[in-house]
Amino acid sequence: MLNDTIKTILSHRSIRKFTDESLSDEQIKLLVESAQMASTSSFIQAYTIIGVEDHSKKTKLSELAGNQPYVETNGHFFVFCADLYRHRVGSELEETNVEDSLESTEKFMVSLIDASLAAQNAAIAAESMGLGICYIGGLRNDITKVSELLNLPDYVIPLFGLAVGVPATKSDQKPRLPIENVYYKDAYPSNKDTVTEGLHHYNDIISDYYHKRTSGKRSDRWTEQVSQMLSQPSRPDMKDFVNKKGFMKS
Amino acid sequence: MLNDTIKTILSHRSIRKFTDESLSDEQIKLLVESAQMASTSSFIQAYTIIGVEDHSKKTKLSELAGNQPYVETNGHFFVFCADLYRHRVGSELEETNVEDSLESTEKFMVSLIDASLAAQNAAIAAESMGLGICYIGGLRNDITKVSELLNLPDYVIPLFGLAVGVPATKSDQKPRLPIENVYYKDAYPSNKDTVTEGLHHYNDIISDYYHKRTSGKRSDRWTEQVSQMLSQPSRPDMKDFVNKKGFMKS
């Protein structure tokens, strides 16, 4: 049952160092076409992909994302954007008022989901070609400047980058949540203890993973890492930015 | 270059009629494991998957989704949920305050993106096994009732369903936006005419597609279909629901 596609999916690890070998135009086209074949809500196709080739722009994006060198050095750098501008322009052709709909929370969700499904198709397609990938959420660190750099109009916002290229390092797979803590039959557990016990179990797995990799120097718990990350709200300007761009007003 | 994975991706069509042959436990496990191997923002794993097997629940979900029979009759029905509850419980173990972060627009986006990347991995894995899939955004038609039916606590919201099963019909692939209208180099086009011309071109393609399929009876434009859909805001209660569940307050 483990066909090549599933083997590719199960072998995923994020790659944070690429050679500078560029993807061919044919490869880029195949990745975009793969992205486009993902499901899309009511055929709305609510995303745009920017391929950043200009080197100074890549350097700038790398800085804006918190100095991540793999944003600058890779085989190709994609930025996936939620896009309802196309629909705004289309509505003018049809002389139809669509603002209320475009500005709803529902359509914000639709555009995020659409763009993410498309991106993951591109990611799997790239990995199936032997390339490595890394998602770059860090583009949201300074989302206003990223948006300006890419000339994004209203009703378009950058969501994340996808760096693709020939891997220059191999990285490990960290153990995911045990399946019984992420997949439930018929309903969410009604007893909070079920969730707590699952977290203790997962903490043991993650601590053990770090312990073995660092010869006992580290033994982080997952809840410790995640709680520390969440103790400071990041990107507090997000709602303002999203609203200013026309999304999620109602 | 067209390996089996890319062939699978490019052959996608949504399947809206399945046989009643159930997926095996092994298949379900493989799909969930595939979902879990998707990238996740800072290893946050902000989603939960509910596998609905109880037949009366499937019937109810089918009704709530607008009487879609393929929600009831399929090989397996998954509901993908944004989940930050696990992190809320984890933060109690660590005696850390994470509410401000959990309730931010940024983390709402992270959980939607995380859940969607995971879902698309499951979708591709299923299709690589010869199964068909259909995303069910219709679960958001009455998201409060779906949430209650699945016993979802605060900080967990259902995003969409994924029906998987043995296809009982074959469906067509509708032509996507031409690549030059969805993929831009270095920046979004500064001239609105570029977008407008692209839409006219795409309208011709879509009209032609319907014309040929219906022996001339239909010739819908894409902008016509999309504008009509968007002329009435759907799911106007979404923001309230999302806020009540603890998401996107700031």
Automatic annotation (TrEMBL), chains A, B:
Q: Indicate whether Phosphoprotein appears among the record's keywords.
A: no
Q: Which keywords appear in this protein's UniProt record, sorted alphabetically?
A: Flavoprotein, FMN, NADP, Oxidoreductase
Q: Extract one GO molecular function annotation from the record.
A: oxidoreductase activity
Residues in domain Nitroreductase?
9-165
CDD domains referenced in this protein's UniProt entry, alphabetically:
NfsA-like (cd02146)
Q: Which residues form a coiled coil?
A: none
Give the matching NCBIfam families. PRK10765.1 (NF008033)
The UniProt family comment states: Belongs to the flavin oxidoreductase frp family.
Q: What is this protein called?
A: Oxygen-insensitive NADPH nitroreductase
| Species this chain originates from | Salipaludibacillus neizhouensis
